Amino acid sequence: MEYGILIVSHVPEIAKGLPKLLEQVAPDISITYAGGTEENEIGTSINKITQAVDNNSADKILAFYDLGSARMNLEMASEMSDKEIKIHDTALIESAYVAASLLQVNTPIDEIEKQLADLKVKGD
């Protein structure tokens, strides 16, 4: 498996729930998630993100997140991993859904990236 998906949210329930939706359209794609702090409060955890990266069976990961501090932790996790992690500044749910469904049908990664660019969060 070449590409997988990683979801990072400040809310544990969002992080856990979004993969359930994605698995409906992409049952063959490795989808992992990290949500909340170590105490399952609102926030993010570098340890949870690192574990989610390690648990993803893909060598390359498309990562989606909800808020800026999640990006910081994703960047740190990326630096600590041998996996290629592409962090997307896009609408979390919509872009993760687009990526999962396109990966499932073997769409070339450059086409997926093109479609994700249309979902880029404005103002970044």
Automatic annotation (TrEMBL):
What's the short name of a Pfam family annotated to this entry? EIIA-man
Q: Which Gene3D superfamilies match?
A: Phosphotransferase system, mannose-type IIA component
Top-level taxonomic group:
Bacteria
The Gene Ontology terms for molecular function here are:
phosphoenolpyruvate-glycerone phosphotransferase activity
Q: Which reactions does this protein catalyse?
A: dihydroxyacetone + phosphoenolpyruvate = dihydroxyacetone phosphate + pyruvate
Record's InterPro entries? DhaM (IPR039643), DhaM_N (IPR012844), PTS_EIIA_man-typ (IPR004701), PTS_EIIA_man-typ_sf (IPR036662)
Class of the enzyme per the UniProt entry, highest EC level: transferase
Question: Could you list the residue ranges forming a coiled coil in this record?
Answer: none
Domain named PTS EIIA type-4 is located at: 2-124
| Gene Ontology CC terms | membrane
- Keyword line: Kinase, Transferase
The answer to whether keyword Kinase applies is yes
> What biological-process GO terms show up in the record?
glycerol catabolic process; phosphoenolpyruvate-dependent sugar phosphotransferase system
Q: What is its EC number?
A: 2.7.1.121
Q: Which residues form the signal peptide?
A: none
Q: What does this protein do?
A: Component of the dihydroxyacetone kinase complex, which is responsible for the phosphoenolpyruvate (PEP)-dependent phosphorylation of dihydroxyacetone. DhaM serves as the phosphoryl donor. Is phosphorylated by phosphoenolpyruvate in an EI- and HPr-dependent reaction, and a phosphorelay system on histidine residues finally leads to phosphoryl transfer to DhaL and dihydroxyacetone.
Q: Which NCBIfam families match?
A: dha_pts
Describe its partners and assembly state: Homodimer. The dihydroxyacetone kinase complex is composed of a homodimer of DhaM, a homodimer of DhaK and the subunit DhaL.
Q: What is this protein called?
A: phosphoenolpyruvate--glycerone phosphotransferase
